[in-house]
Structure formats: C-alpha cells, structure tokens
Amino acid sequence: MERDLQKYISKRKKRDPEFAADYEIGYEQFKLGVLLREAREKAGLTQKELARRMNTKKSAISRIENHAEDIKLSTLEKFAQAIGKTLRLRVA
C-alpha cells in the first residue's frame, strides 16, 4: 500500500508542478512539526507544561506541532528556550 502511494505521488509530481511544489512545502512543514514534538518529548514536557513555560495555551502548542506552517521565528526561539535548548538555523 505504501509503495502504491509513493508511485502515485511520484507520477502526480511529474505531471503537476503545482502539486509537486505544494507537496514539498507541506512535507517540510510536517517534518518541522514532528521535530518540535520530538524535542518537547525528549525534554520530558507535556504540551500543557510547555504552554505554561511559553505563557500560552496548550492548543497553541498543538497547533505548532501539527500545523507548523507560517510559524514565526520568535515562536521557534521561545519554544527552544522553553525546552532548554537554543535555536540554530541553517541555510543549505
């Protein structure tokens, strides 16, 4: 099944440049959300605990982790500080 999905995505990307661009952007945003969730969990924090540290609501943390599109750099910095980390960006 996963193989069929990958075939479909590959074919669709070849014939539809807009789909290809949107797919790549969406995938990168998904990966960012996963990385943030994993960092929070590795720090041993619940969404509620992290929200308290960031002076926000649990629902805001959920949105950050599940819909990381258009996240502000300042929010990423607060997130990193709240889990005891520093934010490093790299342009490759």
Summarize the structure.
The protein has 92 residues and is mainly alpha-helical. The protein has helices at residues 2-15, 17-42, 47-54, 58-66, 73-82.
Give the tags.
single chain, 92 residues, mainly alpha, 434 Repressor (Amino-terminal Domain), 5 helices, 73% helix
CATH domain fold name: 434 Repressor (Amino-terminal Domain)
Q: What does the largest sheet look like?
A: none
Provide the number of structural domains.
1
Helical fraction equals: over 70%
Low-confidence stretches: none
Q: Could you give me the name of the CATH homologous superfamily?
A: lambda repressor-like DNA-binding domains
Q: Report Rg.
A: 16 Å
What's the level 1 CATH class?
A: Mainly Alpha
Count of helical segments?
Answer: 5
Give the distance, in angstroms, between the N- and C-terminal Cα atoms: 33 Å
Look at the helices and sheets and give the structural class.
mainly alpha
> What is the molecular shape?
elongated
Mean pLDDT comes to 89
Spell the H/E element sequence.
Answer: HHHHH
